[in-house]
Write a structure and sequence with these properties.
mainly alpha, two-stranded antiparallel ribbon, two-stranded antiparallel sheet
Length: 186
Amino acid sequence: LIDLCEMAVKEKKKFIMQEAAELALVFKEFDIDKSGKLSRKELESLFKRFGWASMAWETIDADQDGDLSFLEVLKFLYPNTPTSRLQSSAAELFPAMYADANGKLLKQQSSRQLSTEQLAEVQAIFELHDKDGSGSIDCKELIEAMVFSGGYDEAEVRAMFKEFDVNCDGQLQLAEFITLMATAYR
């Protein structure tokens, strides 16, 4: 873990979901009060345990609320990764903090705010193309949705699928699909 953090900061390391999952385990271990955030005291104990020098709190605490969310940690460690991808990952690893019971990203966490109408439209599209009712869309279903509606070829859709399948399970859950579709509403 120490190597991961040091490399990520020094080398602007590429985001890898497995590493984020390992980091989430450590984050949860040091989240003593189970608030879903690390207080200064909790972070200091993390730094102490791994022998890290304390760094300026403000460097990581982007929203300046006095606590560190997992998303803030991801943004700090992976500054070159799109925020939407980090948000989806945070929602997968901390669903109670970043997604509702249906897997939908909580609005305040979304960097590309969708209007209520847009969000309803995206959810309806998801349900329409989730043909087997599994609560997720596989690559074949996404290809059918995007190639046949026009504007994309199969290779482009496969590339999008790979980019937004942040947990690499071969399926897009609703939160991942919302993140993908939010790019269309820029």
